[in-house]
């Protein structure tokens, strides 16, 4: 390859500043501590270089083609480890933490080796959930229309669905379709489920204990109620939950009545138009493209934007609705996969509950990272800078390699921060990741930095094999995670926790 073409390629970002991912309007993220030395542990694993973007119909040969195919990410205009749980809840010295976290990672590595031959002999598949236990409440389905349900007629048009406050009445699946590797609960998983049920059954849920228990993953059966409690949406007191849910639902739909008609006003048209553009780009497509789901997401995002004028709607916020929506709808669909479920078949009262809950929980999440929506996105800038410094101390070779080929961290880490890695890992992994984020102090703002650092170093072998700017960018924006599952997330979190512990005394200006 001649010098002229190489120089031209390296100048691509400099010549096309409007195309740089970091120039995308608003961004959210958070600030993080600087960093100190050592470690990259055993995070380097080989993985098949399979493309993770399902919409691609042909092989991408240039970075410009790749950028065009993924422009929605920066469009400027249009199981569980008890040892690790112990670390998270006790004040241990660095040596003990490093030793224990390494042991967690090594245990996972041994398990992967043990099953390596089996994985080579058959295609990787995610577990089918065929076993489930029937409880006394059966699923009620009806053919509801996709328009906004009316609070006055919903009772006459559809059978009313009883609101679930604690462990919901549903077809209880004994395996978590997002986090378990087998279709039958192990003895340990049964024990953990019992501990969750005991915590949730009391008159006042001990939130500190619930966080400790949730750090290593939440069983699907109790994830919905646990997320609502950990996010601060529901009170710990059981007797107050019914009233809180009714009040917040009423409040949300009062916002709909007050503001939603203004979406076509001149002042709000650009916001609403951007929401309409962004929603079809989300995943899973089979769920998001259902008319009922699209309308629910449009209302949630528009109302949030109207009620937060200092920032307004930001590309990327749309992705944050999905995990809440999928988890909350799981209360009502039993073992059926949400991607294949006809959401319009649910009663209107159920849809109203899910919509209101998703709005309020998303709002709680965004409250913790609100400072990143201000003009010029200073929070994102600091967060990416902190990631760069952290990686330079964790794995200097990877850092130097990126610098050698003029790859800027903002060019790939912008999306990692903007979408909380949701575009980088499957939805099932995002949901498992959020179990821990909601258990960690400042999980979405502060702990996410260490997860991103561990995530980057995880691909060090693949990164070091690439020898030019274009190939590195394509790799970093298209990492082969489509077959990731609970074990991969557990290893990632173990390494991220270790990094957090080592660099816990970082200067405060990175945490602002």
From TrEMBL:
The gene is TBC1D22A. Residues 217-441 form the Rab-GAP TBC domain. GO terms for molecular function: 14-3-3 protein binding; GTPase activator activity. This is TBC1 domain family member 22A. Keywords: GTPase activation, Phosphoprotein. The keyword Zinc-finger does not apply. Gene3D superfamilies: putative rabgap domain of human tbc1 domain family member 14 like domains, Ypt/Rab-GAP domain of gyp1p, domain 1, Ypt/Rab-GAP domain of gyp1p, domain 3. The keyword Translocase does not apply. Residues 1-20, 144-168 are annotated as: Disordered. The lineage of its organism: Eukaryota, Metazoa, Chordata, Craniata, Vertebrata. It holds the Pfam family RabGAP-TBC. May act as a GTPase-activating protein for Rab family protein(s).
